[in-house]
Amino acid sequence: MAFCNRCGSPVPSGANFCQVCGAPLVAGSGPPAALPSGTSAGAPYPPSPAAQLQFPPSLPPGIVTPTDLPFHPQDGEVFYRVIIPNRRLLWRLMVAGILSGLVFLIILIPLAASVISTGVALSFLDLIVAFLLSVFALIVIGSVVYAVLAFGKYRYWVTNHRTVGRRGVIGFSIDSIPLETISDVVVQRSVADRIFGLASVWVQPFGGASFGGYGAAQYRFGAMGGTNSFLGMTPPEASEVQKLIFQLRDIRRRETGRLI
C-alpha cells in the first residue's frame, strides 16, 4: 500500500494525490517513518522538504464579490483580486498618442521641405505649416480623449475559476480565460513601462497567440488575440498577481483534473 509522504495517510493504488491533504504523491512512496517523539498517532505527519516544495502555499482569503461586474459570476466562483490600473497608465496612453503624432510629422516634414524648395509663394508656405500644426494638434487632442476613455474601461479580475479582463473606448470587450487552460503568465516591461514605473501581466492559454502589440501599440489597441493583457500595474503588484494566478491554476487543475 502507498502512503502520503506529507500526512502519512494511506492512499489507493494508482492515485496521484492524497485524498486527505491533497499533496502530490511521490512515486514509490513507502510506509511512513516512525512518528517524532511527542507526536500522537492522530496528528498530521510532518511534511518532507520535497512535499513542501510541491504543495502550493496557502492562498489569501477571498474578497466580497463586486456588485458592479460587467459579467455574470459562475456558481462557486470566489474573487481574489480586483485590479484597477495605476493612474500612470493614463499618462502612458497619452504619450503613446503624442509619439504617434510626432512620427507623422517626421514623415511629412521631408515632403513639405521638397515643396518649399520649389520656390512656392510665402502664403502657400504658411498654409503648409498651419496644416502640419493642425494635424499634430488633432492627434494630441485625440490621444488625450482616447486615454481618458480607455483608462476608465481597463479592469481586471482574478477568481478561483478564471482570469477576466475588460478593455475598450466607447464600448468594451471582455476576455475570460479558464485557469486550467493557462500555459504561462509573464510579467513584461517595455522601455516606456520602465520610464513610467509600470509593468504588464500577460496571461496566455494553451494554443493562444504569441506576444504582440509591444510598446505603444499594446496600449493603443489593447491586447493579443486569445489572451488577457493586464496593463498598468506596478512591478511588485504584477509579480504578486503572477504568483497568485499560478497558485490558483494549480489548485484548479487538481480540482477538475483537466489541463484544457
Overall description:
This protein is of the alpha+beta class. It folds into three domains: 1-55, no CATH class; 79-86 and 151-256, PH-domain like (Roll), CATH 2.30.29; 89-141, no CATH class. Helices cover 38% and strands 18% of the residues. Strands 3-4-5-6 form a four-stranded antiparallel β-sheet. A three-stranded antiparallel β-sheet has the order 7-8-9, covered by helices on one side. Strands 1-2 form a two-stranded antiparallel ribbon. α2 packs antiparallel against α3. It is elongated.
Question: What's the CATH class of the largest domain, please?
Answer: Mainly Beta
Using only CA atoms, what is the Rg?
27 Å
Shape: elongated
The SSE order reads: EEHEHHEEEEHEHEH
- The total beta strand count reads 9
| First-to-last CA distance | 32 Å
Number of domains: 3
Query: Structural class of the secondary structure composition?
Result: alpha+beta
Name given to the CATH architecture of the largest domain: Roll
Mean pLDDT: 74
Q: Which parts are unreliable, with pLDDT below 50 for 5 consecutive residues or more?
A: 31-36, 38-45, 47-55, 210-226
Give the helix tally.
6
Strand order of the largest sheet: 3-4-5-6
- What is the share of helical residues? 25-40%
Beta-strand residue percentage: 15-25%
Described by strand count, sense and barrel closure, the largest sheet is: 4 strands, antiparallel
For this structure, the CATH topology of the largest domain is PH-domain like
